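Input (structure):
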């Protein structure tokens, strides 16, 4: 706990920051430290730290608890500043120092839930916007089909351990300054399982579980964003001794788009117009995420002006409707003019000195917009 940085410090936001501020800070840092993009040695560690901070500060209940108690979990025992949890009574204290003897024993043959798994999936920009159905293949541990998870060769059954009599623990008596103390330890004969397998299954070598490749269908909903998680219940590691399987968590990474930028549910883009369109006004065609629309440019529009296309942004992940598309117009200064055009512009500007301009940046905007029109 002492080594953890303050979550607000991790995200670079203040304690009075809004939920949107927290989300923007997380999105920026997640892209900066994502291991697929950042190859620095500590990038993955920083990415996990950022994700952990966001998971807490983006949840109102968790954030309230964190603001009051910090990194200490108030549900884990006494003394909100890191005191040990003695709620289990003397037996648990005894276990803490002597490794057993008097504490509650866990049934070694009780069903155990399988571990959760995490899978990172990279998707295209528009796949995040509109959603998609796909399949993934993951390696995971499952019960052995040959022995049905028992670990024993078919036709045979495991035997109760004669050393611990099925408890999974051995009792060792020790002489100490406090007197003779019975100390319970994991049974060395059966390794805590309470069972001995005379004839092991040849498929799993007595483990009861094997590694398999599992193909799983995944439905990505429309509106997901960088760092979104999809939980698929029961598709994690297989449980043991009849226990349920864990869950699979799919963490999404979203590729950037050369023409569109995304901020939450809103889309931003930059569109070039010429001097005449800006001065006299015009109606131009704009590419959106899924269609082309007309945009009216008023006379006298200045470069850098933004226009809003309502409802042309990203579908809301949890709700109705969609965000907006914000269009920034950039006035392109021409570089190839006829003598007559140049003279007219000189007269218009009241100057005989020609201007030196460049169009390299705007040519790139044109290229990007053309590809956006084609749906790329």
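Output (sequence):
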């Amino acid at each position: 706990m002492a080594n953890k940085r303050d979550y607000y410090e991790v995200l670079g936001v203040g304690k009075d920051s809004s939920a949107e501020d927290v989300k923007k800070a997380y999105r920026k840092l997640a892209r900066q430290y994502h291991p697929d993009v950042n190859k620095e040695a500590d990038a993955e560690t920083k990415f996990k730290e950022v994700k952990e901070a966001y998971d807490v500060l983006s949840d109102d209940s968790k954030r309230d608890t964190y603001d009051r108690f910090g990194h200490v979990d108030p549900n884990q025992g006494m003394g909100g500043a890191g005191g040990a949890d003695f709620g289990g009574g003397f037996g648990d204290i005894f276990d803490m120092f002597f490794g057993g003897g008097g504490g509650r024993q866990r049934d070694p043959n009780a069903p155990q839930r399988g571990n959760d798994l995490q899978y990172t999936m990279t998707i295209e920009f528009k796949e995040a916007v509109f959603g998609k159905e796909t399949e993934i293949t993951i390696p995971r541990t499952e019960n052995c089909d040959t022995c049905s998870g028992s670990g024993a060769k078919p036709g045979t059954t495991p035997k109760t351990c004669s050393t611990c009599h099925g408890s999974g623990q051995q009792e060792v008596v020790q002489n100490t300054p406090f007197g003779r103390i019975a100390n319970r330890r994991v049974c060395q004969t059966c390794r805590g399982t309470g069972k001995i397998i005379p004839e092991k299954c040849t498929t799993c070598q007595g483990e009861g579980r094997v590694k398999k490749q599992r193909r799983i269908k995944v439905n990505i909903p429309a509106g997901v964003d960088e760092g979104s998680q999809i939980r698929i219940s029961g598709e994690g590691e297989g449980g043991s001794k009849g226990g349920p399987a864990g869950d699979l968590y799919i963490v999404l990474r979203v590729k950037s788009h050369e023409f569109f930028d995304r901020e939450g549910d809103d889309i931003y883009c930059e569109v070039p117009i010429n001097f005449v369109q800006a001065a006299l006004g015009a109606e131009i065609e704009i590419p959106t995420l899924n269609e082309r629309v007309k945009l009216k440019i008023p006379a006298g529009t200045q470069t850098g002006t933004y226009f809003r296309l309502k409802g042309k942004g990203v579908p809301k992940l949890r709700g109705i409707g969609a965000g907006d598309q914000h269009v920034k117009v950039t006035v392109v200064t021409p570089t190839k003019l006829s003598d007559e055009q140049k003279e007219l512009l000189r007269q218009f500007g009241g100057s005989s000195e020609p201007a030196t301009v460049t169009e390299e940046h705007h040519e790139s905007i044109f290229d990007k917009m053309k590809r956006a029109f084609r749906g790329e």
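Notes: Residues 19-33 form the longest helix (15 residues). The longest strand covers residues 132-143.
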